[in-house]
Each structure stands twice: as C-alpha cells, then as structure tokens.
Amino acid sequence: MSFRLRRLLVVLFAAGSTVAFLLLNPASYEAIFSRVENLGAEQVAASSETGARLATDILEELEVKGRAPKTGYTREEFYSGWPTVDGCNLRQKIIKREFGETAVLDGCNVVSGEYDEPYTGEHKVFSRREEISKGVQIDHVVALSDAWQKGAQYMSKETRYEIATDPLNLLAVDASANEKKSDGDAATWLPSNKKFRCQYVARQVSVKYKYKLWVTAAEKEAIKRVLLNCPNEPAVGV
Question: How far is 233 from 40, CA to CA, in rounded Å?
Fold first, then answer.
C-alpha cells in the first residue's frame, strides 16, 4: 500500500469517526462546547440545575480495579491529530471555547484573547498567536495513557478516538502545568488552583463514566477527598 493511500485512509477514518460521534452525541457535544467556568464550590452549587446527577454518585458507579499494563500504548492508538469540526481544527475550537467573547479569530485560528486559566488560576492574556501556541496546551483531562491502562486498550479504535477527541475530555490549559501533570490521575496530580479541583475531578469522573473506564482504589479515594468539599458538584455531559 502506498504512503499516499495510507494517509488518505487515515484522513477518511478520522473524518468518519468525527461525523459518527456527532450523530450519536449531538446534545452532549453541543453542551460541552459551552465555556468552562472557573468557579468555586459555592458558586457551582448555586448555579447547578436541580436534579443534575452528582459527581459523587457517578463515582460510586465506576468499577474499581488495578492498572492494566501500559504495554502497547502510543497516542496513535487513540488518534493521529486533531480532527476538523464544523470546518475548524478541534484544538482551535477548544481554545475559542475557553477564551469566550475575548477570542479574536483569523479564520479558524485564535490569534489573541484572554481567560482565567483553570489549572493555575491565573488570568492569562495573549496578544499574538505565537504566544498562544507556546503557552497553551490542550489537556486530556483523563490522560490517554491513564485511559489505556484503565480499560481503553480493550476497546475499539473508534471508541478510543472518541475519548481522545471528545470536548468533555479536553481543556485549554497552561503548558507548564500540563507538562507537570503528564499522565497522572487524581491520586498523583491535582491542579494547584484549589478552586478548580472540584470541577476537575467531576470532569474526570464524567469521562470515565461515559466511556466505562475504571478507577484505582487510590484514585477513587483521592477524588472522594476532593468532593467532600463540594458534595453538590454536578457531573458534566453525562
């Protein structure tokens, strides 16, 4: 098989997976593209919808098991690059989501803007696209390596692709904070911004629930300790 043909097949697979995801999850996908607000526990409780499922309840429904071997893991087992959604690169759409109305666009690309960065709690202002490229990374809230060791390696390529490209599992964050997190779970890493920790673990729990990934005993205990401070924290997108 020629290189061009293999590349074409990869592109077609990525496009087809994205279309299938949107068709199967239209409401969830749209809702998750709402801006991620950097709220404290009291503000979240006040703004939560009545009857929303709680992260604490979702956590109790997750299977608890030890890590599977990391053998065979590569990012390419999940995806080979950001897909195009509604004509724009998914990375740019996530950045635009976080920057909100401050985002200045050049076509699909965010070239300037500002936001309250969730992992550090710092207010970040960017005046050039190069600054954004250097200072902002798109984090998988449930790291792909962590997902691989907690169930994803036994799933289909299509499901792993959804985990890697689902906006529920993506945040635009400070590059250095993301590098410190690496592939850690809640037992080994939490944002230095304590104000965001409840939302952070709630999103992790929601991703794991949605894709039937498990948690380790240490991870579950770490999440429970965070949620003790915010028992009314809602799950996200599930």
Answer: 10
Residue 236 lies in a domain: no
Q: What are the backbone angles phi and psi of residue 138, rounded to the nearest 5°?
A: -95, 115
In a domain, 232, yes or no: no
Judge whether 207 and 180 are in contact, CB under 8 Å. Answer: no
Task: Give per-residue pLDDT as tens, 170-192.
Answer: 999 999 999 999 999 999 999 99
d(CA 115, CA 230): 24
Nearest residue to 193 (alpha-carbon basis) of 55, 72, 36, 53: 36
Residue-number span of the structural domain to which 60 is assigned = 3-227
What is the rounded end-to-end Cα distance, in angstroms, of the chain? 41
DSSP symbols for 129-177: HHHHHHHEEEEESS-HHHHHHTTGGGS-HHHHHHHHH-GGGEEEEEHHH
For 17-68, how does the pLDDT look when each residue is reduced to its tens digit (9 = 90+)?
444 444 444 333 334 445 555 544 344 444 444 467 999 999 999 999 999 9
* Residue 235, domain member (yes or no): no
- In the structure encoding, which two tokens stand for residue 69, read together? 């071997």
Give the sheet arrangement for strand 123-126, strand by strand. Answer: 104-106, 109-116, 123-126
Tell me the HSE value of 197 on the side-chain side, using a 13 A CA sphere: 20
